[in-house]
Design a protein that fits this description.
Helices cover 42% and strands 9% of the residues. The chain is mainly alpha-helical. Helix 3 runs parallel beside helix 5. The two termini are 35 Å apart. 14% of the residues are buried.
Length: 180
């Protein structure tokens, strides 16, 4: 989170026993692809979830489990350092996207993705995503990948360097100008 305080519905009266909390190590601890996560909730549900996971994902490698323990119990300084870095990257990409004619982008309050509106180009989000990939070398996801309400939007990750974000913004500006 970049602004505000985290709030869990499980903290409300009567909700702890009706809530399942699931999280993973990918984003916070840069363990993307390690497929390590956890869930907390009512015992009977967690027991069934454990059976499903054990029979679909098999066992998590020992080194991954040890890394997860270290991530959760070790110093959290790097988490805050990266949160600050992602905050700076967010400013660069949001400001840069909003400076491109025809694009509007809200400032996300967490994670490292932006979801700019590109409806003004009168093309499907998939067409625009393909155009950016093939003509600008910039990969993004079409908003339609997230359902019908995502149409007209793109999703960009800013989990890359500030320099790469600046290069991508220049390429996006040039490629989108071709669509006007």
């Amino acid at each position: 989170m970049f602004e505000g305080e985290h709030f869990s519905i499980a903290s409300l009266p009567g909700m702890k026993e009706r809530t399942i909390i699931m999280d993973g190590m990918s984003k916070t601890y840069a363990m993307t692809g390690w497929r390590l996560g956890y869930a907390a909730g009512p015992r009977e549900l967690i027991e069934w979830m454990a059976k499903v996971v054990a029979n679909t994902a098999s066992c998590t490698a020992t080194f991954t489990q040890i890394a997860g323990i270290e991530a959760l119990t070790g110093p959290q300084d790097d988490v805050e350092t990266m949160r600050q870095e992602f905050l700076a990257r967010r400013e660069i990409i949001v400001d840069g996207l909003n400076a491109i004619p025809g694009v509007t982008c809200r400032r996300p309050h967490g994670a490292f993705y932006v979801f700019p509106n590109v409806k003004s180009f009168n093309r499907s989000s998939q067409e625009i995503a393909d155009h950016l990939l093939y003509n600008a070398g910039v990969a993004c996801l079409a908003g339609s990948s997230f359902g019908s309400f995502g149409e007209g939007y793109l999703r960009f990750s800013y989990a890359t360097s500030r320099e790469n974000i600046a290069i991508a913004l220049g390429r996006i500006r040039t490629a989108l100008a071709e669509l006007k």
